[in-house]
Amino acid sequence: MKLSDRKKKILQIVVDEYITNAQPVSSKNIAQNYMQDVSSATVRSELNALEEMGYLSQLHTSSGRVPSIEAYKLYVSELMDKGKLTGKELSQIKSAFARQSGNMEEVVRNAAKVISELTDYTSIAVAAHDEDDVIEKISIFPFKEDRALLLVVTDRALIRDKFIAIPPDMTEEQLESANRLVNRTFKGKRLGEVMEASLAAEEQFASYKAIFDRVIDAISDYVNDKSGSVVMAGEDKILNHPEYAEVDKMKNFLSVVTSRDKIANMLSDDNDIEISIKIGGEDKNIPDDCSLVTATYSAGNVKLGTYGVIGPLRMDYQKVVSVLEGVGKILEDMVNKK
Amino acid sequence: MKLSDRKKKILQIVVDEYITNAQPVSSKNIAQNYMQDVSSATVRSELNALEEMGYLSQLHTSSGRVPSIEAYKLYVSELMDKGKLTGKELSQIKSAFARQSGNMEEVVRNAAKVISELTDYTSIAVAAHDEDDVIEKISIFPFKEDRALLLVVTDRALIRDKFIAIPPDMTEEQLESANRLVNRTFKGKRLGEVMEASLAAEEQFASYKAIFDRVIDAISDYVNDKSGSVVMAGEDKILNHPEYAEVDKMKNFLSVVTSRDKIANMLSDDNDIEISIKIGGEDKNIPDDCSLVTATYSAGNVKLGTYGVIGPLRMDYQKVVSVLEGVGKILEDMVNKK
DNA sequence: GTCAGCACTCTAACGCCTCAAGTGCCAACT
DNA sequence: AGTTGGCACTTGAGGCGTTAGAGTGCTGAC
């Protein structure tokens, strides 16, 4: 069904109003503040039509209208004005990334923090890492008789450290030569390759099989563990929004938000879409009554990660989208310049 | 002022009842369920006396009594029965630590998780680390032209990794010899010594001053940064407790709990007390209406960290203390056996 | 298609009432 | 002196009717 321009305009007004005030929107309000050329009665009949089409609903017969999930979807895809960041906000983003040490996790943490602060919603972020990362260097760093720290550097400047056990009968010299061998074998390979190569390697380096197995295990764990690198910020921001005033809703939200696994599931899907907005029960991983807005950044063909915001349906999508775009731009600039 | 035995008994009953039911306790309740040998009128006059002494208060004239902060203090120090863990709980703790890789941070995370699960409160934990740790090994691990990862192994099996910048004109060979020199210089030293030694070292190793400075800076940062190693679990558990049903209180609590700095301040004080209970506004770092119960564990003379629980004043101290003791015992066993 | 006017519906707020819980106090008892 | 039953008093919670106000739907006129 096609909406007339006036219906679209009215729908946009309703969503905008509801987003800013969290109150049902009345025909009088619309006519007085946004459409002086028509009367409230006219607006009413339009609202009535929009309600029949499923875009609006009323809590009771004499309340104003509230947008439906359909309305939000239409809003973000067609109706919403593009927001613009103020200079102040831009410089706030810039300064958040000013002191960087090349540690990917730090970048992710800073991004999550600044996104949460600017949007006033809970933000989530996950550093991209996948099978296509190319290994640049591996180091096995012994630190107790039976333990070593495994370090893997990939082309994405991402360091991953994991503890592995050293076979008890292995001397330090043996370990060093195993280290050299591991490096020679895996350098330049994709992480995915390493995982698949496990069987082929087995024959070749029988004497260091134990070490090789552990390195491969560690890399597999890393690639498969999506929840490990999830970072959040502003978990308490959610309380600023009236839809979570009831303890039950709060609790539901917090239990999702404090579970890294659930978050990881939400973010895992579409790593190639630039900005994605998922609403309500659309996706089974996203709790009802929640919206998830995410952006996936990359510099050149290197993925930098997925960043986003989770909050009520009645979310300030304009603001969130513009903040995510702003952060993306600055992040990509930063990486490219470097 | 000295309390009669009966007053103590009544006060204990009031606190116990209030902890389990979150409802003001009436004289009738006490007389019927706990003290059949006296009438409710007698209990009433005792309650009245306790109220005048400041241990109890009423919300309004016709409500039962509620313990005051003083009452909680007395309760935990004198009145409270010692709790006992069930076999099931003990084995739950054991299995939480079953798979350990020697990574201190993992131990801390597991401890926080199991404490939160068993007590149903939000738990916080911080791995001990201080100036008395002895350096066993240092490694500077270059991974990009201008960046390196600094690894420090101490006697507490704690690995700390930090990124440092490499001076641009430094070759890989120079870096390696700097690495050897750093190791020779700092091995066996306490972290605190390294920090103080900075000036003395300056003269001696002028050529590698830049590297030395950065290592010393990194170690200083580590020793001074108490918030970095704070771990939490069960942040949403707080919602299970009725005192946080109001959004304002919730918000206050969550804003404290989501700030690592604030948590670190709370835990920083008394690293040498075995089990400490801090209540309400007693300590300015602890938010009003909150109790913090912490335990500091050590095996031999090696500190393992500080673990604790934060929750409402009306906290099940018995349970919390016994869980903390149980975790401590198992943790220390584990470390000693190893 | 628009609109003023009006009847209708529903909520929120208020006051009123009653009920039940719990206290404080007192006079009587041990 | 301590304990107790009895009783008056206070208070919050909940039910109920009323009212005011916001907002709608509808209708007949333009």
- Radius of gyration of chain A, in Å, reads 26 Å
Q: Distance between the terminal alpha carbons of chain A, to the nearest Å? A: 50 Å
Q: What is the β-strand count of chain A?
A: 10
Major β-sheet of chain A, in short?
5 strands, antiparallel
Largest interface, with counts of residues having CB < 8 Å to the other chain, equals:
A-B, 35 and 34 residues
Shape of chain A: elongated
Q: Give the ordered list of helices and strands of chain A.
A: HHHEEHHHEEEEHHHHEHHEEEH
Oligomer: homodimer
> Which residues of chain A form runs of ≥5 with pLDDT under 50?
none
Give the percentage of residues in beta strands of chain A: 15-25%
Overall structural class of chain A, as computed from helix and strand content, comes to: alpha+beta
- Average pLDDT taken over every residue of chain A: 84
Number of helices of chain A: 13
Strand order of the largest sheet of chain A: 7-3-10-9-8
Helix content of chain A: 40-55%
What does this 3D model show about the protein?
- The structure is a homodimer of 338-residue chains.
- The first copy, chain A, has 338 residues and is of the alpha+beta class.
- Helices cover 47% and strands 20% of the residues of chain A.
- The longest helix of chain A is centred in the C-terminal third of the chain and has 21 residues.
- The radius of gyration of chain A is 26 Å and the shape is elongated.
- The mean pLDDT of chain A is 84.
- Chains A and B meet through strand 4, strand 5, strand 6 and helix 11 of A and strand 4, strand 5, strand 6 and helix 11 of B.
- Chain A binds a DNA duplex (30 and 30 nucleotides) through helix 3.
